[in-house]
Write a structure and sequence with these properties.
The chain has about 290 residues and is of the alpha+beta class. About 20% of the residues lie in helices and about 25% in strands.
């Protein structure tokens, strides 16, 4: 063996011994720097986490509570052939089908981080969208409400008659109403560049709607006639005289999956008739197939 190789082997042995000494000297058991403060900080973080868990204040707990509150199933097996004030119903768009909802999309409330952190339910300003989750539940069922303070529960809704759409449940007992403001300079528009739908705690002109017959030939004849349930119609916004519309080109993610944007916009074809984006149905008993 040459002298050069012997020197190289000796150097490798010294490097190996030095690394072993350093590894034995500095390991996970060695406390360096502000180890006492860091240990105290970790203990405080764990105590804070346990306190939040006991109070149900963790984000995952609030999210579970929100989903449990809003996905609570609602029975839609109402007798009768007409829509009545006070009855729960779904606002269904049968013209746009989804792989998860072959019968179409339904109008539903959406919650964000603010709602999850505060009340785990809808609140004033919550967004309204079209959801492929068509199973009747709290978030996609609404009540047909009187446009004023009169109690009209049980009365039949008529074509052209103003009404309000109130949430099926609310965290404070008072319903929230679906509204859309008339666009102005400081309006917040959606990706479709049309006014969005939101929930409001006030019943005003912006939260009033009316049902319009779909067939233009019989529209005037059916005015002031009872609105049948589960029949395709047009829902018009009283304040802007524009129609409730889907925006099928604009989707967004939420706590409940992918949702379709809903706005107030009249979408007509070349024959000046409403397209599938403006066609809705007030569903009260979830039939297998719409008429």
């Amino acid at each position: 063996m040459s002298v050069k190789n012997m020197v190289g082997d000796e150097g490798d042995r010294w490097k190996k011994r030095e690394s072993e000494e350093i590894g034995a000297r500095y390991c996970s058991r060695v406390r360096m720097g502000n180890w006492s403060e860091e240990l105290f900080l970790q203990e405080e973080k764990m105590k804070y986490f346990l306190r939040q868990k006991e109070r149900g204040e963790l984000r995952v707990q609030k999210t579970r509570a929100t989903i449990s509150n809003l996905l609570k199933e609602v029975s839609l097996l109402l007798p009768g052939d007409y829509v009545k004030f006070g009855d729960p119903c779904q606002v269904l768009a049968p013209g746009l089908c989804h792989s998860r909802a072959p019968q179409g999309l339904v109008l539903a409330g959406v919650v964000g981080v603010q709602e999850v952190d505060t009340c785990q339910h809808f609140q004033d300003g919550s967004l309204v969208s079209a959801s492929p989750h068509s199973t009747p539940c709290v978030r996609n069922c609404f009540r047909v409400s009187s446009p004023d303070t009169r109690c009209r529960e049980g009365d039949i809704l008529k074509y052209g008659e103003p009404f309000a759409l109130g949430t099926f449940e609310s965290p404070y007992g008072l319903p929230l109403f679906v509204e859309s403001e008339v666009p102005h300079l400081h309006s917040i528009l959606g990706r479709s560049k049309h006014p969005l739908l939101r929930l409001s705690s006030y019943k005003n002109i912006y939260s009033l709607w009316r049902v319009v017959p779909l067939d233009h030939a019989t529209r005037e004849d059916l005015w002031d006639m009872p609105v049948p349930a589960n029949v395709p119609v047009v829902i018009s916004h009283v304040a802007s005289n524009k129609n409730l519309a889907l925006a099928p080109d604009f989707w967004f993610s939420s706590y409940f999956g992918v949702e379709c944007e809903v706005s107030v916009h009249t979408d007509l074809n070349v024959y000046r008739h409403e397209t599938a984006n403006n066609i809705w149905a007030l569903v009260t008993n979830r039939p297998e197939k719409l008429q």
